[in-house]
């Protein structure tokens, strides 16, 4: 079989995955698999705020640089993730942001100045704002009260108001006129009332940003899918088209699948169910006009879903929601993606 990257490319698509600098350095088999299968990579941690600026004014780009060197060596493109986010904030950041509007603006500008100039030659696509939409009632991870309408209550929002999003996109465009600027979010894929409301919220935000000429090029749909949720291709296709009708590209940025409760064993049945869902989802995304798809990791063994599980004893009891299994064997999900491209 050809690598997924080549199958995708041959049909006008791009396949990529998230990976960490540590895995590239310490797990040669995983690194070889990513080198073979992915055309595009995204740092799972190294380009987040806490990684890049652990203390104010002290930038630590080495882990990201290591990943960028690896990508350059294997001729992979790299997405940047993420400039403005409520998670992965260093301890000092929320404190600084609480010190007033001009202070917050200064912090954002200093971070963008340094990071965007440092990565200018290697990263041409950035998640400028990650996860700005508030989770509606009924979501898995409900937000505490305090959300400002459609927007999630975050230290950035409290410092700069709802306009923090426009401010961030303008600041990014000002520093690099040809960068693809992306707004990335999750929880908009399922056929459920909270997902439907989150789609409405996201579309309202996008329409508002477009109406005000805020420089924004693309929307990233994370696609952390869950087997227990219903998926309706027609609804999702219409959503992707609604975004594209605003003149925005759509990327699938973090695809993986959470099973209901990873039962030990019965891999063929579980893998078949996951593959069916992934095929339906990816086909719908492409039908809607998405041309790029990344998975959040590539092997179940190093999935963040594994790290997050309360009990994860070994290969039998991890979620099987990525294209390769614990032993780096191709799964039915790999085939589902190959068919969808
Ligand atoms: C996750 C990483 O995979 C974890 O290792 C880390 O502990 C937390 O962040 N949405 C995002 C990603 O935008 O940055 C998150 O990544 C997963 C959810």
UniProtKB/TrEMBL annotation:
EC numbers for this chain: 3.2.1.8
Q: Alphabetically list the UniProt keywords.
A: Carbohydrate metabolism, Glycosidase, Hydrolase, Polysaccharide degradation, Signal, Xylan degradation
Translocase is among the record's keywords: no
What positions does the domain GH10 occupy?
Answer: 1-340
PROSITE patterns listed in its UniProt record: GH10_1, GH10_2
Which residues are responsible for catalysis?
Answer: 254
Stored Pfam families: Glyco_hydro_10
The protein's annotated catalytic reaction(s) are: Endohydrolysis of (1->4)-beta-D-xylosidic linkages in xylans
Q: Which SMART domains match?
A: Glyco_10 (SM00633)
- Cited InterPro entries: GH10, GH10_AS, GH10_dom
- Give the similarity note: Belongs to the glycosyl hydrolase 10 (cellulase F) family.
The name on file for this protein is endo-1,4-beta-xylanase
